[in-house]
Each structure stands twice: as structure tokens, then as C-alpha cells.
Amino acid sequence: MEPFVVLLPLFGAMLSMPVGRAFGYRASELLTTGLLLIAAIMSWFLFFDVALGGNARTITLFEWIGSGDFRANWSVRLDSLSAVMLIVVNSVSFLVHTYSMGYMKDYGEQSRFFAYLSLFTFAMLTLVTADNFLQLFFGWEGVGLASYLLIGFWFKKKSANDAAIKAFVVNRVGDFGFALGIMAVFYVFGTIQFDEVFQAVASNAVVTPWNAAEGGPIQELSIRFLSWDFHALTVIAVLLFIGAMGKSAQFLLHTWLPDAMEGPTPVSALIHAATMVTAGVFLVCRCSVLYEYAPNAAAMVTLVGAVTAFFAATVGLLQDDIKKIVAYSTCSQLGYMFFAAGVGAYGAAMFHLFTHAFFKALLFLGSGAVIIGMHHEQDIKKMGGVKELMPFTHILMVIGTIAITGVGIPGFTLFGAPFGTAGFVSKDMIIESAFFAGEAGKAFGYFAFALGLLAAVMTAFYSWRLIFLTFWGPSRAPEHIRKHPHAVPDTMMAPLIPLAFGALAAGMAFYGQFVGDKSDAFWNGALYSKSEQHGETADHLNAEQLAEMRDEDVLHTVEDEHADVIAREAAEQHGEADDHGAAEDGHGGEGGHHDIPLWVLWAPFFAMLTGSFAAGWHYLRGDPLKPGWLRPGGMIYAFLKNKWYFDEIYDFLFVKPALAIGRFLWKDGDGKTIDGVGPDGIATAVAAGARRIVKMQSGYVYHYAFAMLVGIALLVTFILIRAGGGQ
Q: Where are the beta strands (DSSP E) in 337-478?
């Protein structure tokens, strides 16, 4: 069964267009969607078996590449990490396939579109079930190809072509770093198999890099490049993270994501919200052992993630395109996931990845329903009053909004889990993890905590701004749209319902498994933690330990004397004493723990309220389009409206110089030098010589007779000279 959970989408991709030609596009839609339904059901069975049942395994299908000492198998790796990704990818992909049956009915070429969707799903599944870096890279490039095809699906539209090329090129920058990272892994370890590499790092094994005279313990090993020595694990971890930055649209390599909204809306929901853009987070969590022993690389992950969360939130404040608002929100939420992984809270990062898939797919698909209903209008300033036309869509979008903004009750638990929406449970865990990482001395921990809170304020503001301008207030749409809104098919609305339930309850339902008291058994070694291996509570606090602090009775159930000592050390390190002014229990239980300061526990909640009330104060009083604090014409307004001028900066630094160099090499290098001196030059010289020789052919007989006489005279003279010389 296991290989088919990966292969079924591939079968759909291969058969979609032939079946569509033979039996019509509806047959290809039903075929690909049906295969995804089977794959999604199988994914849930595997999730219960592998993650909840503890039956992790790896199934090797065949040896893919064998050359000398280099070996790469094609395998299906099933552990808790891949099991989580399987249900995210297949479940969301099935819902998007179903949604697309209604969304694409008026656009045509459905068979090609569904083939691309299934191809993407197969590539993503290959990525998350890989057992070595090369197979992961195959899936990595596969999703890049499918993304290019889907973003540029409407290839007759120039902006779609430009966006597809931009996404492809920017991702190649990151993928170049990723490829170098894989080469560095093989250079250092002599293998690219996950288990062998991770075990060597965890055990501090002695390794000898390829062609090196001697090696050393991997955690201290340095490699020499030119005349410098670099920490080997740091080099590898940084190169791998550069690949993650490109795929997950992190700061500096983020510019492709908003433009990718040129693709159909289902593409945005599948690729740019729930699956492909989370591949970078998955990579960092998969390689958690590398980042645990490469603290400088982990600090880089924290810094980039925190800046991305803040940057994307600032840009989202002034966007007017409904899909681009959600796109920048995606970029910001990915920043949260990365800085969680950077501070060692890998469980929290994966938890937010999981919950984010529900509410962000809901927001994207809900936005697509609004676009269809409003006759393909995407500017929220030209909407208003849509809740009267689409009341059910309005309810679902509000559910997505309260999930992403993090509505919940700090300190209150329900069945042992924090009470609140999915975004509240997972995002608050990340912010608290960053705070405690700062207390533990981790680089940029406090920085990530502060920017995470600021991003939470702005997330609430622009999320409710979208709701207020789109659904509330007087309608600003043209008369014909108000009177005759486009009907939205049931196949588009049905997938939003399970996503809405997930956005509300997934955080509470899976809290215990991802980051709570059941997390150790749930992850079963798929995520690495130095503290779990060595009891280093004083210098490391991961998401699982933070969850234990928040649970009401976990520390009281520990009877082992050594564990009690560790717990006391952790309490002393992280402020159990009264001088922190801590809350009595992170969730209002009876345990009386003081590990989480009260203000830290409530800070994300008040950040959410601040942004929400600010949006309501501005957009629900009078004219919603009136100028606010950031008025058109101001420097800050222009700075944010132009997305920090990254496109203009890159255009100046890279695009225009590249065009100038290309034009020079084309005109002067190729045209004037190579062609001018080479083929074109020789051809020109031959033609000019021929033209001169042709002039000798006058056509007069006496000219030819004269030439013959001159020739005879020269010949006779030559003979006489030779004869005289012979005597």
C-alpha cells in the first residue's frame, strides 16, 4: 500500500490528458480527483499507523543511482514527519482538485490543469517521503517544475508568463545553494542517506572528508576552502537553508511568491499556502540534528524567519488585491515556522505548518469564491457588501480570519489543550518558544519574540481589513455585479467546510501529539533535540518542553530523581521564581507552575486584539476608504506600497546589468567579434573578392586575345630564362 500513496497522483497526471481527449474533460477531473481521494484516505491510515501507532519504517523500492562509492536508493520513508506531510499534501490536494472542478469549468483546458495539479502532488509526495538528499532534491525540483507550469497555466497572458519565469529563476538561486549543500554532505560524510548522516552527527562520529588526509569528530570538523577553514556542519546547514529560503519565499528570495498569484486560485491554495512553500520548513525540521550542532546556522534561520514574518506583515497592510494579501500573509506565517525551527522548537514549527494548511487553504479558496462571485474582480476596494451576496462564503472567511489572527483564551484549557482556534494554539506556542529561547541565551530569541508580536498585530489588522473592505459596508461594485453576482458552484463551496473545521479545531485536537505531553511518542525520533539526548535543559528549551511547562500535571508525574533535578534546573533557568511575575499555570490548571510569565502568555492575545480593534476603528467608522495613518504620498506609505522596493532594487542590481551584459555580448561579442571576424567576416571577404574578380570578365574578344598574348609572352620568357640558366 505504501508506494501507492505516492504513485496514485502520478498515475493521474499521466492519464489525465489521454482520458480527457478520449472521454471528455469531466472524465479526467473525476479520474484525478478520485485517485487523490484514495491517496488521502491511505495517508490518514498511514498517519494513525506510523505517527500514532509508532510503526515507522522505510521501504526501499530499488537502487536509483550507483556509481563508485555513490549510492542513492528510491525509497518511501514513513516516519512521523513524513506522515504529517502526507496527510497535509494529499488531503489539501484532494480538496483543491474538488474545488477546481467548479472553478475551472468556464476556463477550458481542464485536462491539462488537472494533470499539472496531480504532477505537483506526486513531486511533493516524493519530496516528503525521500530517504536521502538526492531523492528529496528530485521532488524539490519536481515541485519547482510543476509550480512553473501552474503559475503560467494561462500562457497566453504575458503577466502569467512573467510570473512563472520569475518564480522559476528565483527558485534556481536557492536551489543552487541546496545543490551545493548536498554535494557538501557527500564530500564530508561519503553518503547522502539520511539515517547515516544524522546518526553520524548525533553520535559525533569521526568522519574523513573525501580526499582528505585526516578527519575528526563531525561536530568539531572544519573543512578548508581556498585559504579559510569553516565549520563543516555550519557550511552544510547554511547551504541547505538557502535552498529552503527560495522554496519557502523567505526574506531576500521572497519576490516570486506574490507574483505567483497570476496562476488560477486553486494553484495558490495548493502550492503557495499549504504544500510547496512549506517544503523549506520540512527540510529544516528533517535536518534538525544538523542545526542542533550548527548554532550559527540555526541563528541564521531564526534571524531570516523573524525578519520575514515582520517584513511580509508590513507589506500586507496596504495590498488591495485579495489574493496578494493572503500571499503576503503566507510569507509572514512561514517566517514564524522558520524562527521556531531556528530556536529549536521543531515540533512547534511543524504544528504551525499543519494548522496553517487548514486556515490558509480556506482563505485562498474562499478568496477564489469571492473572485468568481464578483465576476473576476480582485481589488477589495471595488467590493464591499459581499456578505449580502455570499453569506456562506462570508462565514467561512471569518472563520479563516479568526484562525489566522489567533483567537483563543490564554490560560484556559479544554481536554488538556489550549482553548482557541488552530492559529492561536500553534502560533502562541511559537512566540513563547522564542521568548524562552532568548532566556536560554539562544541567538535572536528575543528578537524573534518581539518581531513575532509585531507581526501578530499587523496580521490581525490586514486580515480584518480584508473582511471589512470585502464583505462589510456599502457595496462599491458596479451595478451589474450587485444585481447579478456570478453563481458559485457547490463543488467550490463543499471543500471549504472541512477546512473550516480544521481551522477551528485542529490546534486543540492535535496539540498533545505535536507539542504536548504525547509529543515524544508521537515524533518517535523524527525530530532531534539535544536536550532529549543529553538532558541539557539549562541551555535548550524546545517546543515539547515548553508544552510540558504549560500542561497542568506533567512535571508532577515525574518520579525519577534525575528528572526531578532536571526539572528544578529548568525552573531556575527559565524563571519559575516569583521575580518573573509568572502566571500560576500556563493554562489555568492546578499545578501551580510559574514557568511562563503572565505577560508572555497574554502578549500574543493582546497583539491580536490591538490589530483587530485598530482595523475595526478605521474601517467600520464612516468611509472605509478614508486615508489612515499611512496616507498616500508619504514616504512610509510608498515604502510599504512598493513592497520595500525589492523589485526595483533587484531590477537595478541584477536585471538591468544582466540585460546590459547580455546585449553587449550579443551585439559586440557575438555579432561584431565572433560573427564579424568568423563566418560573417569570411563570407564578406569572399564576396568582395568575387566582386573584384568579376570585373575582369568584360565580354570583349580583343580583351581576351590581349590577355592570351600577355600570357604567352610571359610563358615564353619563363622558358627562355630557365633554358639560359641550364647552360
A: 408-414, 417-420
Residue (of 292, 286, 27) closest to 139 by Cα position: 286
- Measured distance CA(158)–CA(162) in Å, rounded: 6
pLDDT of residue 586: 37
pLDDT of amino acid 547? 56
Q: Work out the burial of residue 705: count CB atoms within 10 Å of its CB; fewer than 13 is exposed, 13-18 middle, 19 or more buried.
A: exposed
One DSSP character per residue, 61-124 reads: EEEEEEETTEEEEEEEEESHHHHHHHHHHHHHHHHHHHHHHHHTTTT--HHHHHHHHHHHHHHH
Determine how many CB atoms are found less than 10 A away from the CB of residue 50: 23
| pLDDT recorded at residue 456 | 96
CA distances from 108 to 8, 102, 113, 151, 320 (A): 24, 11, 9, 16, 28
Give me the pLDDT at residue 579, please: 37
In angstroms, the CA 13 to CA 116 distance is 7
Q: Among 121, 123, 117, which residue's Cα sits nearest to residue 137? A: 123
The whole-angstrom separation of Cα 415 and Cα 589 is: 11
**Residue-wise pLDDT tens digits, 267-320:** 888 887 778 899 999 999 999 999 999 999 999 999 999 999 999 999 999 999
Cα 710 to Cα 639: distance, rounded to the nearest angstrom: 86
Element (H, E) at 670: none
- How buried is residue 479: exposed, middle or buried, by Cβ count under 10 Å (0-12/13-18/19+)? exposed
Its pTM stands at: 0.85
- Concatenating the DSSP letter of every residue in 230-278 gives EEHHHHHHHHHHHHHHHHTT-TTS-THHHHGGGS-HHHHHIIIIISGGG
Within the chain, which residues score under 50 in pLDDT? Answer: 535-541, 552-594
Strands 222-225 and 216-217, sheet pairing: unpaired
Looking at residue 676, what is its pLDDT? 79
Helix (H) or strand (E) holding 217: strand 216-217
Check the CA dihedral 465-471-475-476 and report its sign.
positive
Q: How many CB atoms lie within 10 A of CB 228?
A: 8
* Among candidate residues 336, 337, 460, 472, the one with its CA nearest the CA of residue 408: 460
Q: What is the 3-state secondary structure (H, E, C) of 528-562?
A: CCHHHHHCCCCCCCCHHHHHHHHCCCCHHHCCCHH
User: Helix, strand, or coil here: 412?
Assistant: strand
What pLDDT is stored for residue 450 in this prediction? 95
The 10 Å Cβ neighbour count of residue 621 is: 9
Distance, CA of 155 to CA of 9 (rounded, Å): 24
Note the pLDDT of residue 572.
42
Phi, psi of 559 (to 5 degrees): -105, -15
Q: How far is CA 253 from CA 170, 314, 429, 650, in A?
A: 7, 17, 26, 11
For residue 578, what pLDDT is reported? Answer: 38
Q: How many helices (H) and strands (E) in the chain?
A: 33, 8
State the DSSP H helix or E strand holding residue 359, giving kind and residue range, or none if neither. helix 346-373
Task: Tell me if 416 sits within 8 A of 512, measured CB to CB.
Answer: yes
Coil, strand or helix at 132: strand
Give pLDDT, residue 671: 81
| Residue matched to cell numbers 479526467 | 28
Are residues 123 and 146 in contact, defined by beta-carbon separation less than 8 angstroms? yes
Residue 275: predicted pLDDT:
83
